[in-house]
Design a protein that fits this description.
Elements: E1 4-9, E2 16-24, E3 39-54, E4 57-62, E5 65-69, E6 75-76, E7 85-93, H1 105-118, E8 121-124, H2 127-135, H3 145-165, H4 174-185, H5 193-199, H6 204-215, H7 219-235, H8 242-248, H9 254-265, H10 269-276
Helix pairs in contact: 1-3, 2-3, 5-6, 8-9
């Protein structure tokens, strides 16, 4: 079974030092610490959930979130297991020289200042910015492809700077906020996404679209993570049998529960319980979502 796929792309223009796509299918061990001298790293979570530790600060990234890492800054995933997600990354040469993206010295300096202000921050990229970023990974062998890619990159960076200038996230609507609270309070009682849609008087397609727009992941994924988060807490109580945890949270069998749990935590429920006896920190909590608690 594939745990993760790394795919590097050939940069279409010299301003990009390196670029690639990482697809996590199942839980994998935390990534090692790395840094990139003289290059900014843009890490964009297209879907799923990723933890990043940058310059000593923790960031919880969901679909639509972008992290701009400053040159030379150490970053890794801390002690957190990484699970299902699709992540794009781009390493940009520092825009200090005249001619960067065809800009004059003052424009390059303005861009450099803007990126510095964004450094080591979590931003919410607009749909337009996402489209520009993803399109950079298209295979384009047509004439003037370099000029087109350079234009896409400039438009992407403009959206990044605009995101930094208006960092406040759009308030989560009352219906989605109510749904989030209900899922967190009663994870084992959620039978279907359709049930939630009906609860807030939305059609199923509209509810799914609206939920992902404001939360960053589909409702079914959010429900599953809520159940796993609750199961991790219950497993710390040695008096609760693993099969009881599975049944109380709506898993069909304890075997199914074990398979799903291992996919997200990289260990079985039994191994997690044994590990929890040795530490007071829930370092494998996969559900905390900064900025989305309402």
């Amino acid at each position: 079974m594939r745990d993760v796929i790394y795919r590097q792309y050939k940069p279409p223009i010299h301003e990009i030092k390196e670029m690639g796509l990482v697809r996590f299918y199942d839980a994998i061990k935390p990534m090692e610490t790395e840094s990139h001298e003289h290059a900014y790293e843009l890490t964009y979570v297209y879907s799923g959930h990723v933890y990043m530790k940058v310059g000593g600060c923790d960031h919880s990234l969901f679909g639509g979130d972008l992290l701009c890492v400053a040159p030379g800054t150490c970053h890794d995933t801390g002690n957190f297991i990484q699970n299902k997600a699709i992540v794009y990354y781009i390493h940009l040469h520092h825009p200090v020289k005249n001619g960067f993206y065809g800009m004059d010295a003052s424009e390059a300096a303005e861009l450099g200042k803007g990126l510095k202000n964004c450094a080591n921050q979590k931003l919410t990229l607009t749909q337009k910015g996402c489209a520009h970023l993803v399109s950079l990974f298209d295979d384009d062998s047509l004439p003037l492809s370099g000029a087109v890619a350079r234009g896409k990159l400039v438009m992407l960076l403009r959206e990044v700077l605009l995101s930094q200038a208006s960092p406040e996230k759009t308030a989560v609507p009352d219906d989605i906020s109510y749904t989030l609270q209900h899922i967190r309070s009663f994870p084992g009682q959620i039978r279907s996404v359709a049930e939630l849609a009906s609860m807030v008087h939305l059609s199923l397609p509209r509810f799914k679209q609206k939920f992902k727009e404001y939360v960053g992941i589909p409702p079914a994924e959010f429900i599953l993570r809520a159940k796993l988060n609750e199961s991790a807490k219950l497993l710390r109580n040695e008096n609760t049998r693993i099969i009881e945890v599975a049944m109380n949270l709506g898993f069909s069998t304890s075997q199914h529960f074990s398979v799903v749990f291992k996919r997200y935590f990289n260990m079985t429920p039994y191994d997690y319980r044994q590990l929890s006896k040795k530490t007071d920190n829930e370092i494998f909590n996969t559900f905390t979502h900064e900025g989305q608690d309402n």
